[in-house]
Amino acid sequence: MRKISLVLTVFLAFAVVSRAQLIKSITTQAGTPEDKALDEITNTSDPAQKLALIEKFNADFGKGDLQLLGLDLYVSYYLDTGDFKKMAEYADKILVIDPDNFSAALHLARAESQLGDAAGVFAAGEKLSGIIARYDAQTPPAGADSSWASLHKQALADQQDQIQYVASLMANALYKVQAPTERAAYAERLAAMYPDSSYAIYAEKTAATAYQQAQNFPKMAAAAEKVLASQPNDTDMLVLAAEYYSSSGEQLDKAAADATKAIQLLPTAKAPDGISADQWQKQITFQTGIAWSAQGQVLINKDDLAGAVSAFQKASPLLKGDLNSYARNLYRLGYAYARLQKIPEARAALTEAASYDTPYKADALKTLSELGNGTPPKRSGRGRGGME
Questions:
Q1: Is 270 exposed, middle or buried (0-12, 13-18, 19+ CB in 10 A)?
Q2: What is the tens place of the pLDDT at every residue in 159-209?
Q3: How far apart are alpha carbons 347 and 96 in whole angstroms?
Q4: What are the residues whose beta carbons fall under 8 Å from the beta carbon of 303, sequence distance 6 or more?
């Protein structure tokens, strides 16, 4: 008797468990016509001849379990020949017949990734996630022996590398999604589908930065908080959260705590792979500046104007690499000086802020005009919400 796994390619080597299986297998009796047909397919190297033999196998034996095997022969053939559109088509056909076919979902994800179709990769990932959830929810069937539960659990554990592989395909697909709102939505889908994957945190961070680009700041903050719940020392998300809460005037104590923590952690933060020492130092400098500016904005909201001036002064030289952030910090500094009735210092900061073509030019000019009229500046001092 020959046991034929529904995964026939070298790239996926699955362990078949005799009971509580996640990976299904099909057996053929040695010496039967279908067994001989499979031998002939295996031993044929000519692509055209192999395809003809696969078509004949499906015509002669493509019913019942052998229908799944016959379709998988197509999947393997088109993988070998690099026709990923056909590979995806036949993997989908298997899933129509057997929606819980783990191997077919893996093949489908790989094919869609090769085709560069982010939507297709995520659809395949969702199918695999559903298969895993249904498998995980299974209970021992009647007559199952005492080893069923442990074998059931082990069968899923044996496929963790393959599950991580699909999650990685989904993570890579995020790069191909250009629209920030769409990329954020895909990233949150990945995190929700594979919360135990090593890519879940990456996905939430991607969602946070994508929502920031889309200027959907509440969702940005929510995604950042999901990261911080499990990675409380993530400096990127600490800065993002501190920036949002301080600019919006919400959760000021949390904004201050996040900013302070980021300032403490950033000097020793490790550079991710692929970033040069120079690039990393520029990023650390910029993020430290943003954290100090957020700290200053918190202090303005708490009417600690002298403390705010000190924080903005620390931020200013660190933000010169980003004109918008630098101009906003100057506007905030000028506003704090104005509240303290330090008019020459306020004029100097606001005049420089107004000299740059940024979203803060109009705010700086308006506050300068108010100073000339003897009108005290408004309380917020944020400048267009502070999140541009």
A1: exposed
A2: 999 999 999 999 999 988 999 999 999 999 999 999 988 899 999 999 999
A3: 70
A4: none
Distance CA 185, CA 226 (A): 15
Q: What is the CATH number of domain 1-139+153-176?
A: 1.25.40.10
CA angle, residues 27, 33, 34, in degrees to nearest 5: 40
Handedness of CA 331, 332, 333, 338 (dihedral sign): positive
Closest CA to 161 of 46, 339, 298, 13: 13
Long-range contacts of 268-271 (CB under 8 A, 24+ apart): 269/235
The whole-angstrom separation of Cα 159 and Cα 149 is 16
Q: What is the pLDDT of residue 12?
A: 34
Please report, to the nearest 10 degrees, the dihedral formed by the alpha carbons of residues 226, 229, 230, 236 taken in order.
70
**Superfamily for 266-386?**
Tetratricopeptide repeat domain (1.25.40.10)
* DSSP letter, residue 312: H
What are the residue boundaries of the structural domains of the chain, listed by start? 1-139+153-176, 266-386
Give the residue among 22, 14, 19, 25 at the shortest CA–CA distance from 151: 19
Question: In angstroms, rounded to a whole number, what is the distance separating the alpha carbons of residues 262 and 264?
Answer: 5
Closest CA to 58 of 74, 70, 40: 70
Interaxial angle between packed helices 361-372 and 343-354, expressed in degrees from 0 to 180 and rounded to the nearest 10: 150
Q: Give pLDDT tens digits for 279-310.
A: 999 999 999 999 999 999 999 999 999 999 99
3-state secondary structure (DSSP) of residue 25: strand
Phi and psi for 28 in degrees, rounded to 5?
A: -125, 145
Helix (H, G, I), strand (E, B) or coil at 3: strand
3-state secondary structure at position 46? coil
> In this structure, are residues 62 and 70 in contact, taking their beta carbons and an 8 Å threshold?
yes
Query: Which residue in this structure is represented by tokens 């509440």?
Result: 218
Q: Which residues contact 190 (CB under 8 A, 6 or more apart)?
A: 122, 125, 167, 170, 171, 174, 197, 199, 200, 203
> Residue-wise over 130-147: b if at least 16 C-beta within 10 A, else e?
ebbeebeeeeeeeeeeee
